[in-house]
Specification:
2 copies of one chain form a homodimer. By secondary structure, the first copy, chain A, is an alpha+beta fold. Chain A has 2 domains: 97 residues, Alpha-Beta Plaits; 137 residues, Pseudouridine synthase I, catalytic domain, C-terminal subdomain (Alpha-Beta Plaits). The first copy, chain A, is built from 5 helices and 10 strands. In chain A, strands 1, 2, 3, 4, 5, 6, 7, 8, 9 and 10 form a 10-stranded mixed sheet that branches. The longest helix of chain A is centred in the N-terminal third of the chain and has 13 residues. Chain A is globular and about 60 Å long. The relative contact order of chain A is 0.19. Chains A and B meet through strand 4 of A and strand 4 of B.
């Protein structure tokens, strides 16, 4: 008999080579560290499955994973035991639920939420250094809000897809993009059932061109229609991106 | 002729041995790094004066300093030049004004504002690790708000004063203490014309005892009356404290 655990994880991605385990076993990954802590606790070598495999430097406020164990533990035991073995790491378990064996952290997702944080001010960052993208030139949020409208809905996002992307189709549906500003801080909140590789960072990198008045808002519509990654903006830095949560 | 510059500085205090220069010159301090950057820029060895000399690990969103130079520079030049020499550090100049020679960053202060940040949740911190004090046991904010009332106003704060404090008098006037909670985050905002050494952190460490129901709110009144540092709570950790700003 197998018991399936749905576990919510928060992490600071700065010191990890992304979520996914790498061929180079010297590279420390979120997945590797989590699987090791599960092994230390349970004695079982498990393969965890995550809602979204974040890149190196990307943070998560609530990443969802699932894994199976032979034994039934209380949610409290799982949380406390994993956090014990995660001490010293920048990864922490914030929730655990015993779930049906049909649940899948990746495939059962109904909606995923990402936030990109920009600090828009002249002088460099101190406290937010590895927590946000610093953009010195003032961004016009109104123009960015015009541009984002072309991206919401079902489109072929080939122009915002990384060349390494393994998704069969480039057609995705963006549920919403919310751009808000408070003092120097700009949040770009993007939600969709699923994303292509680097899609959020490529969208941010392109919306920024609109905010800097390097391209017109309408240009986003043209870039989308061209279905060509070379036409969109640069991939925004990983350290400004936060995986917020997944709805199931 | 001397030109006096009032400069606003933001810093992440984590990697510095506090603001004040130490006898051990190997210890990196905010003051030392700032004076060095002023020297690299102007060729002058200046002694800077700060509004508040923060302890090791304490952060600042807007620390005010002043110093004199023989030459008149534009505010823009000072900001850009100092930030150039501060690159790689966790210190940044966010403002500069040429001021009257009577201005003194420490003595001209009318009000100083500090914020203490607590993350009140069961599981350890990741992204806020060096940015807030983690308290696992739930705090009762209502009780803390009752207790703070005894501290607002003019009192002898000997019970909340560090033994190393050099202030002549322990009588200080707290303008206000505001305790607010949003999700897991608790802010304790304290303002006063001036503070004793470790006063904010000692107040926070004692208010926490009330929030944890280890002492009654009224006990704060008694502790204050005893004028004895050994009667109050532990000094709250430095990394939760932020020097917000000074009014002149």
């Amino acid at each position: 008999m197998k018991f399936r655990y749905k576990v919510s994880v928060e992490y600071d991605g700065t010191n990890y080579s992304g979520f996914q385990k790498q061929k180079n076993i010297k590279l420390k990954t979120i997945e590797g560290v989590l699987e090791e802590s599960i092994y230390f606790f349970s004695g079982q070598k498990v393969k965890i499955c995550a809602s979204g495999r974040t890149d190196s430097g990307v943070h998560a406020l609530c990443q969802t994973i699932h894994f199976d164990l032979d034994k039934k533990y209380s949610n409290y035991t799982i949380i406390m035991a994993l956090n014990y073995y995660l001490r010293g790491e920048d990864i922490v378990v914030i929730d655990c639920q015993l779930v049906d064996n049909n649940f899948n952290a990746r495939l059962s997702s109904k909606m995923r939420y990402y936030r990109y944080i920009i600090i828009n001010r002249k002088y460099p960052l101190t406290l937010d250094k590895k927590r946000a993208w610093h953009i010195a030139k003032e961004l016009d949020i109104n123009l960015m809000n015009e541009a984002k409208l072309f991206l919401i809905g079902k489109h072929d996002f080939s122009s915002f897809r990384d060349s390494q992307c393994q998704s069969k189709s480039a057609v995705k549906t963006i549920n919403d993009i919310l751009i808000t500003k408070k003092d120097h801080q700009i949040y770009i909140d993007v939600s969709a059932k699923s994303f292509l590789h680097h899609m959020v960072r490529n969208i941010v990198g392109t919306l920024i061109l609109v905010g800097q008045k390097k391209i017109d808002a309408i240009k986003i519509k043209e870039i989308l229609a061209m279905k060509d990654r070379t036409k969109s903006g640069a991939n925004a830095p990983a350290h400004g991106l936060y995986f917020l949560k997944t709805d199931y």
